[in-house]
Amino acid sequence: MNRQSLMRWWFTATLVVALLLMLVPLPGPLAPFKPYWPALVLLYWSLESEDRVTLGLAFAVGLGADVVNGVVLGEQALRLCALVFIALRFRSRLRFFPMWQQSLAVLVLLLNDRVLLLLVRFLGGASLPPASWWIAPFVGAALWPFLFLLLDDLRARWRIQ
Length: 161
What we know:
Belongs to the MreD family. This protein is mainly alpha-helical. It has one domain (3-157). Helix content is 70%, strand content 0%. It has 7 helices and no strands. The chain has helices spanning 3-21, 37-48, 55-69, 75-89, 91-94, 99-123, 135-157. α1 runs antiparallel to α2, α2 packs across α7 and α6 (99-123) crosses α7 (135-157). The chain is globular, with a radius of gyration of 16 Å.
């Protein structure tokens, strides 16, 4: 297998795994702690491989996440497009932040994602979520260094550009 096909396979596999991780059920008390996996993986690829991640890809992954999750079609697509747009816009700065600052930036991006989700659901007529609904962005930011280092290490071991 040549390097290009290996890179394409690895890139696609990480996005598919992120979508599948959305399906992992957690017990009731732990459900608010579930991070938004597609956003974290798309953030990683936005920082590491600018030419592969586009708004169209974010929209397609979002539509896939909508279908997998069974929510209103386009909800997650809108959220992921906004997230990837901001990440690509500030990519040159975010890449060179120390890991703790990257985690804070990821927290801000995930909180922005939650605010956008709240706005979409509020306009759709849903009631306000409980306070525990805001925990997931903090869990995602706490997991960011581990996810980033894991994906970066696997990419380096396989010598994928």
